[in-house]
Amino acid sequence: MKMNVYVNFRGQCAEAFRYYEAHLGAKPGMMMTHGQSPQPTQAGPEWKDAVLHAQITIGEAELMGADIPRAEPMRSAYLTLQMDSDSEAERVYAALADGGRVLMPLEETFFASRFGQVQDRFGINWMILRQRPMPAGS
What we know:
By secondary structure, the chain is an alpha/beta fold. It has helices at residues 13-24, 86-97; strands at residues 5-9, 27-33, 51-58, 61-67, 79-82, 101-107, 112-119, 125-131.
């Protein structure tokens, strides 16, 4: 069994996924627009260039998404990126915060050398985490 995350956008899916490729090192997968679908979609003709289904890989996780007319912003869910270094956590946090909204500044906590929350310019909530090494025997 494998669990994937699926996020919906209001017409910005392709732009968001390209941004994640550029700033998070995401690997592109498939992307199909409503207009490319072999069957008519429920979205109107004005959505023909919007994404019907897209898929990218970030680290070891697959992120899927689509454009739908009534997409709601994320509320109490976050995509969490566990980083390998403080400097990489800072770089990624800055990239996601650019044009977005800081929900919690990136800082040192009792459980992490870097932890912060941001909503990116596409309305997706992210947690950036660089965990502290656990002491031996814990």
